[in-house]
Structure formats: structure tokens, C-alpha cells
Amino acid sequence: MFNRSVWSIVERFAKIYPIISITGPRQSGKTTLAQALFSHFPYINLENLDIRLQAQNDPRAFLARYHDGAIFDEVQHVPELLSYLQQIVDESPQKGRYVVTGSQNFVISEQISQSLSGRIGMLTLLPLSMNELNFESTKFESVIFRGGYPGLYQRNMNPTEFFPSYIQTYLERDVRQIKNIEDLGLFQTFIKLCAGRIGQVINYSSLAQDCGISHTTVYKWLTVLQASYILFLLQPFHKNFSKRLVKKPKLYFYDTGLACSLLGLEQESQVETHYLKGSLYENLVVLELLKARLNKGLLPNLYFWRDLAGHEVDLIAEWGGSIKAIEIKAGATLQPNFVKNVNYFCSLSPESKGYVLYPGQEGFYANTTLLPIRSLQRLLDE
Predict the structure, then answer these.
(1) CB 3.0-4.6 Å disulfide test: which of 66, 76, 248, 306 passes with 312?
(2) CB neighbourhood size of 354 (10 A)
């Protein structure tokens, strides 16, 4: 088992909340983490149809068997269980009593907001970070191509063996159960089109036209992909600097290895020459910061900024009352244009600090801090 950074936060939440929720993509390590930390609890997998039917048909009797605590895996299959858990923990608010996991974010979050507010500690577990992988190479193409799913490393699998099966399983298990998605082939084409737009501001009209679907369907399908932790949308920074700003979000994937597979990459060397190399590198860095924040149990508070005049900053991080303008570059050789937009943003927001994350050396240039990607912790601590 990998040493997961979120481990200490789960232990802390178990002393504060009666219920702990761990959500994230399929095969990101949620079950392994829960069973390792709460090995004294019985494990109930709600993917099992027989167990699921018992929970659905008589939830009170079902939960009575686990009065002293349990791990309920893939709880999105029986979300009504969360309402019954509310009654149980209200009667006896013992801390760290139940653990629920799930891979359908919106389904679980909606049920929690309705019935378990204030009673549950919510955490998100994404695939492995570079720190958790002990990744030491300077060839970031390797981690971009392989991604961070634990099973790929534990079974020593090639990404070309792992990801096609992962995608097919996702389509068969999760998407097939969703109403209004009958053509799985067309939906898979849609996912591939999204992979080709990594790091771009979403153009809903272009996606609809290229896939041959309506605008309404684009919105619905993006919601499905977000709910199941395939991709996420980075929202624009909303502070008004008396400039017209781009208001649509940018698109990223929760795992760069999955994105590479959808792009048809079959070898690590293909990342180096691919036209989306810069976007994949940007996706990797955004993910590393996202994982670092989530593994501490904190809100990501990550955005991007772009005005209609063409000025853009890849990431705006709003942490601890301060604003960090972050430019992400795949090139290791410092160029003056690396800091151009960061400095422009900081001129509009003088309280902000400027950074460039790139594969080069640490330093300082034109009022901007230069940080190698391996120095992300320094950025997080400042």
C-alpha cells in the first residue's frame, strides 16, 4: 500500500465527526485507505447486488446489523442510507463510527447536504501525487503518461493495458445506469473530444458541433464526467479589475494518464512530441496543487484569469487571505515572456505575489519567484 498524504487528516476527522466520507475516482485507493485505517469495522460493498437490494428494501434492519460501525463502500448506489445514518448518529454521536466511500460526487454531496450537514467529515481522494509516488525523475513525461492510479503501479501494468479497461468499466458500470445516455459509443467519443481540449476555455458550441449533439447534451454530459471524477472545470477568477474578463471555465482531467490514453498515446516518448505536451504538463501541475490542498482537507481555491485583451494567468491561488498568480511552463529554459502576464496581473492586484512553475532552477526574475515543480510545497506554505 502507498503512503497516502491524507492519512493523518482521516484520523483527525475520525475524532471529530461520527461519519467520514471519502469520495474520488474509481480505483483511486478509497477502499484500501478505509480498510487500512478502520480494519476493526466490517466492510460492506454496495456494488454487490444482493447486499444492495437488502439495503434498499429494508434500510433500518440492514443498518441495525452494523450498529457499532462499518465501512459502506460505493454508497452512491443506495444514497438513502445516509438519511437513516443521520438518525442513528443523532441518537448516539459516537465519533468515527461510520465510513462511507463513493465515486459519484454529486449524488453523495446532494444527499449529505440534505441530511448530514455538520455530522460528516468530507474528504476527496484523487490518484497518487508525485510525492506519494516518490517520483524523482526530471522526465515529467513519465508521470504524465502513466498517471497516478495505484493499481497501475501495484500490478506493474502498462498504461495501454490499464486505461482502456478502466474506461470500458466506467462506461459499463456508471454511465450505462444514467438515463438519457443510451449511445455509449457517442459518449466515449465525447470524452475523447474533451481530452483534446485540455487546458482550454470550454467552447460549448464547438463540442456540440464536433460530437453531433445539442448544447443541452454537452452540459449534461460534462456534469456526468465531473460527477464521476473523470474531468473537472477550473473556474475563472472573478475579481473585477475594471477589465472585461473571460467567464467560461477551463477543462482539465483528474488523471493525465487517462487523458493520454484518450488521446491515443501508446508510448511515453510520444508525450514529448505531442501538440498537447504543454497542456498535459499544465494539467499535471494543476493536479499536483489540487491534490496537495485536498490531502490536507482544504478547499482548493484554484482559479484561472484571462481578460478579453489576451492577458492570461494559468492559476490564481487564493489561500490564507493572499493571492498567488502562477504561470505554468513546460520549458526548462527561462524566457522573458514567462513572467509577462504574471507581472501584468500583479500590477492590477499589487497585493498579489507572482510565481512561475517550470522544470528549471529556483530563482527570482522581474519580481517573480521561479520554482521548480518539485518545490510546490514552498508555494503551498507561503
Answers:
(1) 306
(2) 24
